[in-house]
Amino acid sequence: MARLIISADGPEKFDIWKKAFAEVAPDLSVLSWYASQTRLQPSDYVLVWSPEADHYPALATAKAILCTGAGVDHLLNAPGFPRHIPLVRMGGEQTGQLMADYVTWAAIALLRQARTWAIQQAEQRWACNTIARTTDATRIGVMGLGHLGAYVATHLARVGFRVSGWKRSPATLTGVKVYAGQEALPEFLETADILVNLLPSTPQTDGIISEEFLKKLPRGAGFINVGRGRHVVQTDLINALNAGILCGAVLDVVTPEPLPATSPLWTHPSIIITPHVASEASPLMQAQYVAEAIGQIERGEKPALLCDPQRGY
Ligand code: NDP
Prior knowledge:
Elements: E1 3-6, H1 14-24, E2 29-32, E3 45-48, H2 56-59, E4 64-67, H3 73-76, E5 87-88, H4 93-111, H5 114-122, E6 139-143, H6 147-159, E7 162-167, E8 176-180, H7 185-190, E9 194-197, H8 211-215, E10 221-225, H9 234-242, E11 246-251, E12 271-273, H10 283-298
Parallel strand pairs: 1-2, 1-3, 3-4, 4-5, 6-7, 6-9, 7-8, 9-10, 10-11, 11-12
The chain binds NADPH dihydro-nicotinamide-adenine-dinucleotide phosphate (NDP).
NADPH dihydro-nicotinamide-adenine-dinucleotide phosphate binds near residues 227 and 278.
């Protein structure tokens, strides 16, 4: 029987995980990392989010590490993290569905300038801002067409948006015009009335969203960041909003997190902030995904979302 040691979310959340795994994978032996009798064996799997650095030596002896996050930049960038151990990122149907719902909400919020309604409501002020812009007349560009980006892009196309996507390598995706590589980036940006960032954080993508970059979008475009705060040069984003290069932004990820109370992002009239909540599947759905990935490794198969440490995602 495979053993899964859970360090994710600390000792206080272990019972929630144990209950979820008991439901979806009763054959899996589930132990707490924090129980005094737990000793990691080379055949063990470990579920982590952001383990302490003093866990790394033990993690270096695991069969595989599974992360409760889809982005694993915090692990790959941590000095001493055992990058040679297979690392599986979070995925699964519900993770994609939640992200697709969030981006659809954010895109329509930008189309209808929902931030203005929120400000007016806080001031108890009735002022009409009718806007005749519809999804079918709006072009959305999704940067990053991986597990989440592809899910989001195809969902937006079903909702009625005109959707394109940008990634590193060429691909085809139903209902989505795919642009690949640096050469295709200017054309991709020129055709995005709303830009969605779903890239992973890597040395190639950190800081990619600068004022120069945003100027390549149609003037007055909207921006949705669900990738990482590090992708964006924050002062450039604010300048672009103030200069009308962008009409608004919805930010689920920022730097640093939590966002300090003094950050100008909080009060900007064209920015909607959410606290990194776009897509976190329920413990049950995450447990199901983790159990399936462990089953694949046990059968000698390669899980689809196995991280490539060289590539950085
Ligand atoms: P994947 O690794 O599956 O996909 C990454 C995509 O980005 C791929 O299409 C890849 O291209 C593309 N890409 C990577 N580097 C480049 C580059 N230099 N130029 C162009 N394209 C590039 O990731 P996921 O879809 O699972 O997740 C994406 C990110 O979403 C995570 O890394 C995380 O930061 C963020 N996230 C945010 C959450 C939230 O709640 N806000 C929740 C979960 C994730 P190719 O396919 O050609 O390799």
